[in-house]
Design goal:
The complex is a heterodimer of chains A (about 350) and B (about 300). With about 350 residues, chain A is an alpha/beta fold. Chain A is built from 12 helices and 14 strands. Chain A folds into 2 domains: about 210 residues, 3-Layer(aba) Sandwich (Rossmann fold); about 110 residues, Rossmann fold (3-Layer(aba) Sandwich), CATH 3.40.50.920. Chain A has a 7-stranded mixed sheet, with helices on both faces. A 5-stranded mixed sheet of chain A has the order 9-11-10-13-14, sandwiched between helices. A two-stranded antiparallel ribbon of chain A has the order 1-8. The longest helix of chain A is centred in the middle third of the chain and has 21 residues. Chain A is globular. Chain B has a single domain, classed as P-loop containing nucleotide triphosphate hydrolases (Rossmann fold, 3-Layer(aba) Sandwich), CATH 3.40.50. The longest helix of chain B has 18 residues. In chain B, strand 5, helix 8 and strand 6 form a beta-alpha-beta unit. Chain B has about 300 residues and is of the alpha/beta class. Chain B contains 9 helices and 8 strands. Classes of the chains: A alpha/beta (about 350), B alpha/beta (about 300). The interface between A and B is medium-sized, with 35 and 27 residues.
């Protein structure tokens, strides 16, 4: 298929269709509204079902219900909307059904503003709802990668019967870049899910729930989930290394839009003979600590750069085993220029 | 301990520095260099055109023919077709051309940001270089500058009815965005208005003739106004080749043949235009205006090749 120009949000919608997803339930919120808008136009062409829910709380419960039938389903929202969904995400994780959730992050806390941010890192990686559960979190840095990771997200959600989040700051959702999609996956081609609610004709009814009153049963469920998360940690870590050398003046940690701004700064510093490498996590959970640690050993200084007040820095510290980690970030929707980032890097290298 | 008497509580100390909830009511005058300009985060526009002589030279060679001589020139199209970049570049050209005496273009040149649906990448973000080029930018001000609210400024109706200079309209995408014109269509001097549909054949929903025609009639229905021409804006961002421009022009000509609407402009980044060494496109290949288009709406990691100063 030829490359076409798409906004990140549109590419997310098309990639979900290509992945065999035919159900979307959601509620509009800037800066992700082009996802439902695109699907409202495109789904009728492929026999998909788009419903605008009355709220994010309704939307998350609609995807919960659809997921119980074993079908591929997703929703998308932005920060405050994701908060509203968090109770449902916990139920979905506990019930062990597969959903994909897209968060095109805007600046918060509170109602905040509509400009880009990475302020939902902790929420995505640590606090997506009550109770002991984790969700896989994928962070694209381009429109093409957003499309690719949506496909991966559906596969991983099915593999682990667990929620998978694709998280991007507003720029990832709003900007246009050329993109190419894989061939269409037939929604009927997926293997049968014996646990799914498909109408109990000729078999015992399946029951899906997150309610377990017996403490022994509930503890066993917690342990079962934990085993699944350990397996994710062992097999699903993804990251990109950029401009890595055996002896770096500085190693930068950044994801999404900040990684691209950092790359521009790194390229310019390279011309000036300053060796700056980049570690870009693609999975925010599980975080590739071991890979990061191996690079950290080759670097004099470390810095986490974020569109938040210092959230991913927690994971960088876990990887750095006690080494000092510097921080640079902007908030409120202000995105630093490559010049600004470059001068922060220089300051640190020369200090 | 009585907490109310604890003068050292965090709350007491930090309340004073809370943001002013009334900050949205502050005065910012349209057309003036913006107080918010330091937050120009999506465009490095301030670098792009300000004082670059070679850019100015291209811009000053402006010749407006036929429907482009009308006073009101509006750009509509589907989502992401490039309306804003075209409108901003065209307004910039007009602004610079109007500064030259007896050049056939009379000011004042105004641009109205009528985008009521996009949250980012709107023409208001290029307000500073537009203003520098002598273009009056009409857009929501104060912190409404950043809002994605359907704001139609009270002065818009009056500006449409005026008879001086040129008025460029940057209308939001799709039929949803075009709906803003249905509110204003009684006020348009139709004999002095040309609305153009911006076509990018590399965008979803307008990649074939049937799609382009469907979008065209949806836009006309939503606006309650008829189109007077087409703009060929087919590109693939940094991956655009001269042949991509030619292919897009051929496609727009087919839309033209089906609809009877003339192709009034073809756009291309200056690097794709023939300069004697790059085997780029030449003006004589097209029966319409070739608009050199500099990208204003850039992602923040992009560095511009053109800088002022």
């Amino acid at each position: 298929m030829a490359r076409i120009l798409m906004k990140g949000n549109e590419a997310i919608g098309e990639a979900a269709i290509r992945a065999g997803c035919r159900f979307f339930f959601g509620y509009p919120i800037t800066p992700q509204s082009e996802v439902p808008e695109y699907l409202a136009k495109r789904f009728p062409e492929v026999g998909g079902v788009f419903t605008q829910a009355e709220s994010e709380v309704a939307a998350v419960n609609m995807i919960y219900g659809a997921a119980c039938t074993g079908t591929r389903v997703f929703t998308s929202s932005s920060s405050p909307g994701i908060s509203l969904m968090s109770e449902g995400v916990s139920y979905i994780a506990a019930t062990e059904v597969a959903v994909v959730i897209v968060n095109i992050v805007r600046c918060s806390p509170g109602l905040g503003g509509i400009l880009p941010s990475q302020g939902d890192y902790w929420q995505a990686t640590r606090g997506m709802g009550h109770g002991d559960f984790r969700i896989l979190v994928l962070a694209p840095a381009s429109v093409q990668e957003a499309a690719n990771l949506i496909g991966l997200a559906f596969d991983l959600a099915d593999k682990y019967t667990n929620p998978v989040m694709v998280i991007g700051d507003g720029i990832i959702g709003q900007m246009m870049e050329p993109v190419e999609f894989p061939e269409m996956t037939d929604p009927k081609s997926f293997k049968e899910k014996p646990w799914a609610l498909t109408g109990a004709k000729g078999r015992e009814p399946n029951i899906l729930t997150s309610l377990f009153l017996d403490p022994d049963v509930l503890e066993a469920m917690n342990q079962r989930l934990l085993k699944k998360y350990r397996q994710m940690e062992a097999t699903e870590k993804r990251w990109e290394e950029y401009n890595i050398s055996d002896h770096m003046d500085l190693l930068v940690f950044a994801y999404g839009t900040m990684s691209r701004i950092s790359k521009t700064a790194i390229d310019e510093l390279k011309q000036e003979g300053i060796k700056v490498g980049l570690f870009r996590p693609i999975t925010l959970y599980p975080y590739a600590y071991e890979a990061a640690s191996a690079l950290i050993e080759k670097a004099d200084k470390l810095i986490s750069v974020e569109l938040s007040t210092g959230q991913m820095i927690d994971d960088v510290r876990l990887a750095s085993k006690g080494r000092e980690v510097a921080f640079f970030g902007r908030q409120g929707g202000i995105v630093p220029t490559p010049e600004e980032v470059k001068s922060e890097f220089l300051k640190l290298v020369k200090s | 301990m009585n907490l109310n008497e604890d003068k050292n509580s965090v709350d007491d100390e930090s309340r004073d520095s809370r943001p002013d909830p009334r900050s949205n009511q502050k005065e910012v005058h349209p057309g003036q260099p913006l107080g918010v300009a330091k937050y120009h985060i999506y465009t490095h526009a301030r670098h792009a055109l300000g004082g670059h002589e070679s850019v100015k030279a291209i811009y000053q060679k402006l010749e407006l023919l036929g429907p482009l001589q009308k006073r009101i020139l509006g750009f509509l199209g589907n989502f992401g077709s490039g309306k804003t970049e075209v409108a901003v570049n065209f307004a910039m050209q007009l602004g610079l051309a109007a500064n030259i005496e007896n050049n056939g273009v009379e000011g004042p040149i105004r641009i109205i940001d009528l985008d009521i649906i996009n949250p980012y990448f709107r023409s208001r973000e290029a307000a500073e270089p537009l203003t520098e080029a002598g273009v009056e930018v009409v857009m929501p001000t104060g912190d409404k500058f950043w809002a994605d609210l359907p704001i139609i400024l009270p002065e818009v109706k009056g500006l449409i009815k005026r008879t001086d200079g040129k008025l460029i309209l940057d209308v939001g995408g799709d039929d949803l965005g075009a709906r803003v014109l249905s509110h204003l269509n009684q006020d348009f001097p139709l004999e002095n208005t040309t609305l153009m549909m911006v076509v990018n054949a590399n965008r979803p929903f307008t990649s074939d003739l049937a799609g382009a025609r469907k979008v065209l009639s949806e836009l006309e229905d939503a606006a309650g106004l008829k189109f007077g021409g087409l703009v060929s804006n087919t590109h693939l961002m940094d991956e655009t080749s001269p042949d991509e421009i030619r292919r897009g022009y051929e496609f727009t000509k087919k839309v033209s043949a089906e609809t009877g609407l003339p192709v009034l402009m073809v756009t291309a980044e200056p690097r794709l235009i023939d300069n004697g060494t790059n085997s780029g496109i030449r003006t004589e290949e097209f029966d319409c205006l070739l608009l050199p288009l500099y990208r204003f709406m850039l992602p923040p990691w992009r560095r511009d090749s053109i800088r002022s100063g």
